[in-house]
Each structure stands twice: as structure tokens, then as C-alpha cells.
Specification:
By secondary structure, this protein is an all-alpha fold. The protein is built from 7 helices and no strands. Helix 5 packs antiparallel against helix 6. Keywords: Membrane, Transmembrane, Transmembrane helix.
Length: about 240
């Protein structure tokens, strides 16, 4: 988890420093002027964000707006990577125990623990995951080809990180449901070989229905992230 946070912070800082500067003519002065140019454009003081002012033309207003622009860009980049890192950590927090929870002795106890963990995680993150999933649909449907056509290594690093994050999130979310579905097979097998019906057998029937209702899954508030949802998202991209 710490590695994920470290990689995303480095990625965001790299783009903040290098993202708007030409790598073949990089300098601290050029980065500064680039932010001043963006500030002028953002506040309707220039017709293009590509035009670089000269230091002789820089005023106190330019400096103030440049500082505001720098911090706003930094915040946007850090929050973008933090958002992706957050949902990835949420997903892995459930995926890691879900893939190892099946054992004949503790399967029911482990399942109850997974349900509790699922409830806590989804209460904290389901609305964020809904927003991220919608963003994934719109962002990658228009930006995915940029990774393959650009020669800019900073842009490739940024888009590559987003793509890897999305792939891990989507397929590990589907894997959680797939892993827990094996509980249905276990409960059905026990029921078939258990002889006459008992209270415990009825409890297993309830358990089967509960598993089928996706009680353990990553939720997007109005849907669950199983493989059906994953392939629907991929299909729209």
C-alpha cells in the first residue's frame, strides 16, 4: 500500500514539474514562465496558454495569479492520483482476504468477517467508486489512444499509471465476487451429502441466496462491481 502511495505521489510531482514544459528545452525559468502563461490564459489575460511571457513583462498580478495557478494544478494532479490510489487500496483491502478465505473449518466465520469488511468499505467509498467508474467510461473512451500515439514520456507515464490502476481495479473487483461465488459450490456440496434437512442445512440455503445477492463485493452505490459490470465498462471504452 505504501508503494502505491509513493508511486502516485512521484507521478503527480513529475507531471506538476515537467508536464507543461518541453523536455528538449527544460529549465526552471521555462517552467515558471509556462505557469505564468497558463495563469494569464486561465484568467482571460491572454488568448493562448502556449504563449510564454518574458520576465520583463511580468507584473505583481502575474506573480500572484501564477502562484494560484501552480497550487491549483498541483492540487488537481495530486487529487486525481489520490482518487485512483484510494479506490485501488479499497479494492485490494477486500480482494486480498477474499482470495484466501476458503477453508473447511473457518469458511462461515470468514464469510461473516468479509461481509462486515465489505459493509465498512462500501459505506466509506461506494459513492467515490461510482464517480470513478463514470469517469473511467468518459476519460478512457477519449484518451486511451493518446497513450499509444504520443511520444512524450511524461504523458505516457501519467496515462500508463491511470490505465494500470483501472485494469487492476476492475478485474480485482470482479475477482472478489468470483472467489466468494465458490462458497455456493461448497455449501451446495455439503447440502447434497448432508443427509436429511436440518436447521444447519436451512442456514446453508440462506447463505447461498446471500452470496448470490453479492453481499461481498465492491459497490458503486447503485451497482456491484462483478465481471458483468467490468465487461460492460470495457465494452463502452
Amino acid at each position: 500500500m505504501y508503494i502505491i502511495c509513493f508511486v502516485y505521489i512521484i507521478n503527480a510531482i513529475t507531471f506538476i514539474i515537467l508536464g507543461f514544459a518541453k523536455r528538449d528545452n527544460f529549465s526552471a525559468a521555462r517552467v515558471t514562465l509556462k505557469y505564468l502563461g497558463i495563469a494569464r490564459f486561465n484568467f482571460f489575460m491572454a488568448s493562448s496558454s502556449d504563449s510564454l511571457p518574458s520576465f520583463q513583462d511580468v507584473t505583481n498580478v502575474d506573480i500572484f495569479l501564477g502562484v494560484v495557478t501552480f497550487f491549483s494544478v498541483s492540487f488537481r494532479q495530486l487529487m486525481g492520483f489520490f482518487e485512483d490510489g484510494f479506490i485501488l487500496v479499497i479494492c485490494l483491502t477486500l480482494w486480498i482476504p477474499a482470495k484466501d478465505y476458503i477453508s473447511d473449518e473457518d469458511i462461515l466465520l470468514n464469510y461473516e468477517g468479509l461481509k462486515t469488511l465489505t459493509k465498512l468499505l462500501n459505506n466509506a467509498a461506494s459513492q467515490v467508486i461510482l464517480g470513478c467508474t463514470l469517469e473511467t467510461l468518459f476519460y478512457y473512451s477519449t484518451s486511451l489512444t493518446g497513450f499509444f500515439v504520443t511520444n512524450d514520456w511524461v504523458v505516457k507515464l501519467r496515462l500508463g499509471t491511470y490505465i494500470v490502476n483501472a485494469v487492476i481495479f476492475l478485474f480485482s473487483s470482479g475477482s472478489i465476487v468470483k472467489q466468494v461465488d465458490s462458497l455456493v459450490e461448497w455449501a451446495t456440496m455439503i447440502r447434497k451429502h448432508g443427509g436429511r434437512k436440518t436447521t444447519q442445512d436451512e442456514n446453508r440455503l440462506l447463505l447461498i441466496e446471500e452470496v448470490k445477492s453479492r453481499a461481498v463485493s465492491i459497490s458503486g452505490h447503485i451497482f456491484v462491481m462483478d465481471y458483468n459490470a467490468v465487461f460492460n465498462v470495457n465494452g463502452h471504452i
